[in-house]
Design goal:
The chain is mainly β and about 500 residues long. The chain has helices at about 1-20, 155-160, 225, 265-270, 455-460, 480-495; strands spanning about 45-50, 60, 65-70, 75-80, 85, 95-105, 110-120, 120-125, 145, 150-155, 195-200, 210-220, 235-240, 245-250, 275-285, 295-305, 310-320, 325-330, 340-345, 365-370, 375, 395-405, 405-415, 425-430. A hairpin with a 2-residue loop joins strand 6 (about 95-105) and strand 7.
Amino acid sequence: MQSCCKQMWGGLVAVAITVLILTPDDVFAQGCPGSGQQSNGPDVIVGTLGQIQSGQEITNYTADGTYDALSVGTTSCNLGNAQLRWDASPALTHPVIGQNLFRLKAFNGAYRFEQIGQSWLKHGFAALQQTACCSNCQPSGTSSRLGIGCSDPYTASRNGGQSSAGPKWAVNATTGAHTHPSNAPGFSGNVARRLRVRLSDLEVATDQLGPVRFYVEGQYVSPDDAEAGNKNNNASYRQVSYNGSTFGYFGSNPNTETQRQQPAIMAWKAFDPTVTITNVTTPEDANADPDLTVARVIIGAQATDLGGGIWHYEYAVHNLNSDRSVYSFSIPVDPGTTVTNIGFHDVEYNDGDGESWVNRDGTDWTGVFSGGSVTWACAHTYAQNPNANALRWGTLYNFRFDANVAPTSGNATLVQFKPGAQTLQASTVVPSVPSCACPGDVNGDSKVDGGDIADFTQMYIGAMGVGSCAQTAPPISGALNSDDVDEFVNLLLAGNGC
């Protein structure tokens, strides 16, 4: 009996070893058939940036004037439990593919993660049934559907095709819906409609650990993926090199391979884990299918100690797929704080990518420190100019300033751009409230007098952020109350100097 049991056990072990040897790791990888981790419905992701076929991983084009351009190959994968529609134009049920370029760079003692380029969109036209993500792909049997667990490659040169590219303005990334607008303006030159970047934004980055790093991002937007509620994992990023004239990929390294289902803003946190990332769920069309009523905006934030009591506050806000877009961004800052070097950065649109084939208005947002916050706002409302420079899908804008107080946790405020706009709050890194050396000195002029009454009143009624010197009576936090009013009046009557 013992001998029989040993023989049986030995046989089971041999079978198990054989299965491990013959079964690729990606058969039961996350999202693959049999993994138990597939999404409900179709779920398209960017499985690979580059690595498609020799010579087609990345394409560099000849610079044209003050701009350069590139294109990257993308391989999509369907990690859902249903086939993904891939009907060629003029049908509207196929994915569109966008490409973006980002730069991570040190500046005056702190790091900035900025978007420096974006492309027009490649329109999908046929789906192969390959195995880039799952070796047990279940082919659809037709090029108009991407099978379950299957992948489809587009080479860099195909993604950089100019004549068939479509504008981003014609796509609603929340619902995945798009149109094929006619009468597109003509184009010319090597960089038109491609992933375009200013030459002045480029510098040598041949060392993956160097002071300047570049990242490419691919994003697929598809209507049935969005309808299934799977649109928030459609972007992936990868680090790239730049030798002064051409982009390329680094060799095999887990940190420089495609980071699947991670939008490029996550590269900032991968570089520095102290970066705070906040996913903001944005309300969209309330009359739509439940999976289409919300979208995602991502806030990245970091506070850096510059020494001498000064802190740099850096924010990157990435609109992943919100169609309503973002009109303004605010950070609470105590009125008694000293704020300097308020800054802003956006990314250019090109070749008529905007309503009526006019580029989005590139007017920078103006940042203002007033009323207990630093606030940046688009130059125009939607009613004033639907083509204004709102923070739209597939773009990342930066907001920054220096302050003489250390960081704490607090809420950023975002106001949406399009009709139905709402005001949203999200937890992030903000300047702390400095201690008050002169209670009642609300306007910071080193005395308590009639000049403080207007601001105190605004703070009391909630029209202005409450400054620490307005908190004249316990508790020294929260909204002002009648005890604060009584003590403020006493300080006024006493004519306190500071």
